[in-house]
Amino acid sequence: MAEKGDRLQVAGEHVNTAGKGDRLDHKTTADDGALQCLQGDCNLAQAGNSTLAKPKEACAKGEKPVVDIKAAYGSDEGFLRKSPQEMRFNAGLKPNASSEELFNAMGKQIADFYTNAKPGDKALMQQNYGLADKDFTPAKVAASIVDSHRKEFNMPGASASEIEKALHKSILHKINTCQMEIDPD
Question: pTM (2 decimals)?
């Protein structure tokens, strides 16, 4: 389980469990990259497509995941139960906050970060979220996050709750197959 002050990259998102008032890094779309860590994600919904590389099924020999799921969570099911609470904690929300509240909090954090970002970082964020400078509001960023996950998971009509569940399963898969990397900064 992530401790306060730990930082992990989670499904194209940088999660910082730093204290309130500390800078929180932002979410990126799976294929576009991010400000600091431009990491490619495997689109699990399209993994069966013969033109795409098949996703890894397990860590290679000698490779270790960034999180020992069994030690930290007891099991994959334990991770899927606790990961939503950890995301809410990282977003400054109550453990029972809805998925909509979670995505809205993420949108606010990213829009706040954008306000003070360097011009080059702002340009990357605009490209990542498909938003113009004047449109970089918490609500529009939150909508962009949800829309990008709907595309990533090939779930066009999914609710925020369904998208969040798919996101946690994707994170678990990436951890279990050594595709998750620690955010170095």
Answer: 0.67
Cα(158)–Cα(79) distance, rounded to whole angstroms? 22
Question: What is the rounded CA–CA span in Å between residue 170 and residue 153?
Answer: 9
Residues 125 and 113: their CA atoms lie apart, in Å, by 10
Per-residue pLDDT, averaged over 154-174, amounts to 95
Per-residue DSSP letters for 10-39?
A: ETTEEEE-PPTTS----B--TTT--SS---
Tokens for 47?
A: 């993994």
Q: Give the list of residues 6+ apart from residue 15 with CB closer than 8 angstroms, or none.
A: 2, 7, 8, 9, 25, 86, 87, 90, 183
Strand-strand pairing, 13-16 and 7-10: antiparallel
- Distance in angstroms (rounded) separating the CA atoms of residues 141 and 109: 9
For 87-98, the pLDDT digits (tens) are 999 999 999 999
Could you tell me if 99 and 167 are in contact, meaning their C-beta atoms sit under 8 angstroms apart? no
Task: Outline where the chain has alpha helix (H).
Answer: 69-73, 76-90, 99-115, 119-129, 138-152, 160-176
**Closest residue by Cα to residue 44 from 182, 155, 162:** 155
Please give the radius of gyration of the chain, using alpha carbons only, rounded to the nearest integer: 16
What pLDDT sits at residue 29? 37
* DSSP letter assigned to residue 52: S
φ, ψ (nearest 5 deg) of residue 8: -125, 150
